[in-house]
# Entry
Amino acid sequence: MAEAACTAGDRLLLKPTRDKRRDHRAQPDRRASTVPRGKRPDEPSAVTRVAEPPVKARELRRREGILPAERLPLILEVAPNEDYALIDSGNGEKLEQYGPYRIVRPEGQAIWQRALPLWEWNSVDAVFTGDTDEEGLGRWRFPRTPLGETWPMKHDGIDYLGRFTSFRHVGVFPEQASHWDHMAGLIERAGRPVKVLNLFGYTGLASLVAARSGAEVTHVDASKKAIGWARENQEMAGLGSKPIRWICEDAMKFAERQERRGNGYDIILFDPPAYGRGPKGEVWQLFEDLPALADICRAILTPKPLAVVLTAYSIRSSFFAIHALMRDTFAGMGGTVESGELIIREKSAGRALSTSLFARWVA
Ligand SMILES: C[S@@+](CC[C@H](N)C(=O)[O-])C[C@H]1O[C@@H](n2cnc3c(N)ncnc32)[C@H](O)[C@@H]1O
# Structure
């Protein structure tokens, strides 16, 4: 199979299929699937069901060996900076600065009162309105002047495009910067060629950070549109000559093939949604599929691996659960599993907004 190919026909071919490993449920858990962050940006509303040959279920067994050391809870914080800031939050919304624009979006966790006066909240460039349900579609309103779909942004000197998307996202998850910095340090200190695999890579910021630090990167996402945005970001960042393979494919299928072929990576990042679909309709259910994917990630590490970083969000779980999974998965490998939450610190009153859980194995 041509790995880099994501043909124009992909949209038309979209067909949800269920293979053995994901076939225990007739319907996806809609609570779990209420995660716009994981929704494929080009997911069609109507799809045809076409049978696909089932993939053999992976037999999981508890790994032998001493468990990695552990460090938890670890709270990784993104503070307000010149590229991005959480300016204020409260009353079910958050006010953020993305480069030149001030943006207001719904934020279910902000159950406190706003710290800044109303006029600050009203003097903004874009407001996401619509369904307050996480899953709901909405639309952007531009109170000052109509804005285009994209705008120039920077992360730590890397240029890319911010983007008003229909699921309230803006083409970047700033809280991930804590992982990007950590990864960049590992790559730069390795003193040897490093191969990075970025599964569920979205618009590619992590891939760009890794490539800038000198890694050879493989970026996988199920959405043809997201891959297009990521490639645009690569050009925008002036990193066009860096070795990044952009692959539009189901993350699990790609990882399984790497294992069959004996391909290895030194660092693996995976940031899966609670529920998602591959380009051929393959169903991803976090609670069912994560153990197998974590196990495959271990299997496709090089002999001298550096780290495997898992982030999870919008799930009814605790970081203790993914911590235990990662420790068991990396039994016998040494190193440390560090787990906790990614948070963004608010500028106005210093409150912390938790965005995701993470567990990372560091060699
Ligand atoms: C939350 S985003 C990841 C964000 C990314 N880590 C970042 O920091 O920019 C989740 C991504 O998973 C992709 N996705 C959903 N289901 C998938 C699947 N089965 N295989 C591969 N990618 C999938 C979506 O297209 C989306 O881009």
Summary: The pocket of S-adenosylmethionine is lined by residues 37-38, 40, 173, 176, 200-203, 205-206, 220-223, 226, 250-251, 271, 273, 276-278, 282, 284 (CB under 6 Å). The first strand starts at residue 69 and ends at 78. DSSP finds eight helices and 17 strands in the chain.
